[in-house]
């Protein structure tokens, strides 16, 4: 697809995807994701099967899945792009919102590139324990979700959808909330809470992000696959 990760990062940060400067501008939907095992890989396979384009972004220290290396368009973004002031500022804001230690989530800077121009974000993963942060998607996907939500001063235009695939085997790294578990939910910006959905969210279109945990249940994988078959 694009010549390099740096080229793709420049287009994303400059809001140039689909513009005359985009060498691969197209009306086909574009998935932006990572390239890790789990949700990134399942989203990539499902998007390609649906006829979408897909670009998988890695930072200098991220490792791709075997399938991503074999089948996907994977772009490694260098530190120069990730040190862009817009990325650094977004990470500082997300660290503060999530009450994390500064410097602990440097590897998640590349997640900003996945969501900063996305019209919608679809995440499949787990809810981390405790009451903080309110936006409690766990792991690097949680930072991607935070980057996305921080774009919206109110709920107008926010389209963050989360399939709660929290493990039920007693793992202390997550919490299981019956109201959201095993189903799609939408983030309510004003109330800072998850709203369970009666049906799956709209089918991905335009520029969108598909992200999540590196380990999914079969239900989590099926939720991603079914998403591309909804009306």
Could you outline the blueprint of secondary structure elements for this entry?
Layout: H1 5-13, E1 30-33, H2 39-49, E2 53-58, H3 66-71, E3 74-76, H4 79-82, H5 85-98, H6 109-115, E4 120-125, H7 139-149, E5 160-164, E6 184-188, E7 193-196, E8 207-212, H8 218-227
Parallel strand pairs: 1-2, 1-8, 2-3, 4-5, 4-8
Antiparallel strand pairs: 5-6, 6-7
**Overall mean pLDDT score?**
95
Helix segment count?
A: 8
- N-end to C-end Cα span: 28 Å
Provide the helix percentage: 25-40%
Radius of gyration: 16 Å
Q: Work out the count of structural domains.
A: 1
- Main sheet specs: 8 strands, mixed
Find the count of extended strands (DSSP E, 2+ residues): 8
**Class by SSE composition:** alpha/beta
Report strand %: 15-25%
Query: Tell me, what's the shape?
Result: globular
Provide the spatial order of strands within the biggest beta sheet. Answer: 3-2-1-8-4-5-6-7
SSE ordering: HEHEHEHHHEHEEEEH
Low-confidence runs (pLDDT<50, min 5 residues)? none
Structural features, described:
The chain has 231 residues and is an alpha/beta fold. The protein has one domain. The chain is built from eight helices and eight strands, in the order H-E-H-E-H-E-H-H-H-E-H-E-E-E-E-H. The chain has an eight-stranded mixed beta sheet, sandwiched between helices. Helix 7 links the parallel strand 4 and strand 5. Helix 2 runs parallel beside helix 8. It starts with a helix and ends with a helix. The mean pLDDT is 95.
